[in-house]
Amino acid sequence: MTIPITRTEAHNTASMLKIKNLAFIDGKFSGAEDGATFDTLNPATEKLITEVAHCGSKDVDRAVKAARRVFNAGTWSRVSPEARKEVLLRLADLIRTNAIELAVLESIDSGKTITDCFNEIGTEVPNFFQWYAELIDKRFDKVSPTGEDALALIVKEPIGVVGLVLPWNFPLLMSAWKIAPALAAGCSVLVKPAEQTPLTALRLAELAQEAGLPDGVLNVLPGMGETTGQAVGRHPDIDAVSFTGSTEVGGYFLRYAAESNLKVIGLEMGGKSPLIVLDDADIDDGLIEHAATAAFWNGGQNCSANMRQLVDVKLVDEFTERIKIRAKSFKLGDPLDPQTDIGPMVTAEHQARVLGYIEKGKAEGARLITGGSSREPGYFIEPAVFTGLTPDMTIAREEIFGPVLGVLPVNGLNEALRIARDTEYGLHATVFTRDIDRAIYMARQLPCGTVSVNGFSEGDIKTPFGGYRRSGSLSRDNGTEAMDQYMQTKTIWINTAHP
């Protein structure tokens, strides 16, 4: 999609934004009860955007009480499917109408390029709300086969009050991934946006209210993970939490649940995903573009990024030279410029973490053939390409979450599969081959939630997304499966008698 805004227009829009920086609880914007705030900075300039309300446990409790009140009243949870559908369709239209404003807001808050922000917010985000709105009145419960002396109904009901804990790499898109199916299911929700990127979630709450969502159904609670996030995870009256983020923090939510009310926990976490180029693949422009996108899209700040690129020894030299050229061609710079390809890392701390991995790679013997330097001002890192990786190196095993691609030569299909499987993660993989039998074999043998063949892709709104192993739990985002984590199953058994 071509973005309908110039760099100058984007900056003008940014200067006129009316930024919401308070919590949204029970239909109203309000500060934290104790008055606490935190700073949110523009990663491209390192300048303060605004001070944001930092919600504590009392604020979480206030939001939970509002969400429980409206859930029990049935104002949203028990209205007709058509009524919920109408509200979510209006919300989708409002997002489209305000797409440029939202895209600029997200770009300055996250450092994502305006092009990526607009492509996501102008298309994907409203489509999620529309898709789940249309799904509401097309899901059917079941009647179990019985004898004439009974009628057995199997029905789905909203699980109740849910906490949605979001990552910072795709702020509004991840909001849509979770909020849309949760609201479609009839739940009341508390959204805890990442502390690095809270602003678009607050504006979305305002749009949802404008669309007609009842007060208390959607609450947005900005704050830190160790305070706001933990309060959500431990609250005894939250029925489920859906979390996207690091594997370490996902483990915290399992512990919070165990130590509170055993709430349902859905997890989509980290990855160290392989891109596998078998010996019959064509090293053409399309493959190189997919390989570069798999590693450097969103500055590599993507849980399914294919940073481990396993290339057959017969093709590795040609592949390496071409991926090096492509990496050097990416334009870093002002995220509000539509010509920019890669923006900054989200924070100074994250930039330092990624640079530390680059230094670790060099120290362990990998060869940096391009990129890897930082730029100022802003938290920029030039796309880095390493060669000479071995499977035991730190940068071949740990999730970096930055623009660092490692090329690892493999000798044949079996070695590629063995190295690809040698990880604690299982989120995503990409396989390039011209042989359909090899493609299907690899897809079935790779223990991960999504396998893409002959192109990097996470699927689309209709396909479930999540991981195996330490990349996730049995829950899934997207597809009809996403609504399942926000619903519970009830059996109604009716004894009947002959009249």
If you average the pLDDT, what whole number results? 96
Shape: globular
Beta-strand share of residues: 15-25%
Class of the largest domain, according to the CATH hierarchy?
Answer: Alpha Beta
Structural class of the helix and strand makeup? alpha/beta
Could you give a short account of the major beta sheet?
Answer: 7 strands, mixed
Radius of gyration, taken over Cα atoms and rounded to an integer in Å: 23 Å
Question: What is the domain total for the residues?
Answer: 2
* N-C termini distance: 64 Å
Biggest sheet, strands in spatial order?
A: 14-17-18-13-12-19-20
Query: Would you tell me which CATH topology of the largest domain applies?
Result: Aldehyde Dehydrogenase, Chain A, domain 1
Instruction: Work out the helicity level.
Output: 25-40%
| Uncertain parts | none
Q: Can you give keywords for this protein?
A:
single chain; alpha/beta; Aldehyde Dehydrogenase, Chain A, domain 1; Aldehyde Dehydrogenase, Chain A, domain 2; 2 domains; seven-stranded mixed sheet; five-stranded parallel sheet; 16 helices; 21 strands; globular
In short:
Helix content is 40%, strand content 20%. The protein contains 16 helices and 21 strands. Strand 3 and strand 4 form a beta hairpin.
Structural topology:
Blueprint: H1 7-15, E1 23-25, E2 28-30, E3 37-42, E4 47-53, H2 57-73, H3 81-97, H4 99-110, H5 114-136, E5 142-144, E6 150-158, E7 161-165, H6 171-185, E8 188-192, H7 199-211, E9 218-220, H8 225-234, E10 240-244, H9 247-259, E11 264-268, E12 274-277, H10 285-296, E13 308-312, H11 316-329, H12 348-363, E14 367-370, E15 374-375, E16 380-381, E17 384-387, H13 394-397, E18 404-410, H14 413-421, E19 428-432, H15 436-445, E20 450-453, H16 481-484, E21 487-495
Parallel strand pairs: 7-8, 7-10, 8-9, 10-11, 12-13, 12-19, 13-18, 17-18, 19-20
Antiparallel strand pairs: 1-2, 3-4, 5-6, 6-21, 14-17, 15-16
Helix pairs in contact: 1-4, 3-5, 3-7, 4-5, 5-6, 10-11
